Amino acid sequence: MAITHLETDYLVIGGGAMGMAFTDVILSETDADIIIVDQNAKPGGHWNHAYPFVTLHQPSSFYGVSSRELSRGEIDKVGLNKGMGDLASGDEVLAYYQQVMNHTFLPSGRVRFFPMCRYLGEGRFEHMLSGEVFEVNARRKTVDATHLKTSVPSTHTPKFTVSPDVWFMPPNDLPKIDRKPDGFVIIGAGKTAIDTVLWLLEHQVTPDLITWIMPRDGWLLDRRNTQTGPDFFFDTIGAQARQFEEIAESTSIEDMFDRLEACGYFLRIDPEVRPSMFHGATVSRDEVDALRQVRNIVRKGRVKTITSDTVTLDEGEITITPDTVLVDCSARAVDNDAIVPVFQGDTLVLQMVRSYQPVFSAAFIAHIEAAYEEEAEQNRLCGVVPLPNHDTDFLRFTAAYMMNQYNWSQIPELRAWLRENRLDGFSKLLSDIGPEDAEKTELLQSMRKTAPAAVGKLFAYIKTLDEGAAATG
Description:
34% of the residues lie in helices and 20% in strands.
């Protein structure tokens, strides 16, 4: 079959959230031509496969692309997110990305989108339906927007064996159930499992019918501390100030986590069980109260095998019936265990440069690509923030973010860009403080005072962890 040859400035592999956010800034800040390749039929990446009741877990106001608002600008008046900024549903996010593609990217004449295409490497991709092969000469860079390997339940292959006669499903299939099960077993402890338990409770499943297999308890973030509106200043900026202060004053890693929980930065579902996991999952306090209704929590390690009457775990087993629904929530949402430099000659690898914010990170990287030329400086400004897994990963994650934030704050042009970019969310809150706002000014001064001590303490704890790891081989 003949190969179709194409020319472009940027070849973006992946039309998901990060690929779209990167493309949006390159389109607005340069005159470059861009080709986006994606294996899905529509832009939006993993959102094409999300379970039907998924929503963002942080406010819609700083999700999406820089040039187009996603949030409805409303405060929820009912439900477990009451009193906080709206959380877009999966359907809303997908529709939004389709609008960005159809109303911003394609009409520009500088973006071409190739859906249903599998990337083969070295600038080649194949259309999965027609078999046509394309070869692209990327004059500037190839952009890997797939490095953060997003895994969702509907496309995830479990790491345990399941007998074919087990009533087993991803959360996507829960709304299709048409008869009463004997009970539900939720497998996993992350945000997907949290969403699934909350959905079951919302749909009249009594807590006693829910068994939750929780290999590790996790530290959670309070959603009220992530709001971007001025009315939430003392929640959002106050939480950052308290975080810095408690880290700086802590005397050990364990003491640091205790302090962060006591000051309201961290939440946990069971106050009697100390978490050993941190993925950055964000919840409301009302959601935590609802989750605590589920009393049958199984902490016997990970699932190994499932038959029609038994779930075998690392440290024991539980009994089920053939009419028990088992819901697989064990997929890890994102994974970037192999951290690499963002800028690598003619290749650009999108990763996190700010904690909890992948789309902001992609947009920021695009700005650095557009505005700075020297690769060492580009990588200095885009230090990778490693995604957390274990509780102590919070230390590296937070230290890397704080160092990036400090480096950005030293450059007036970057301060201005952050203040005007809607995906940032927080810089504008800080820049809008007037001289008459004595209380807010005092809070900012406190943050500036404690931040260096907090960073120093984090690096001291990281050194202790590294020395301990080296000693144990």
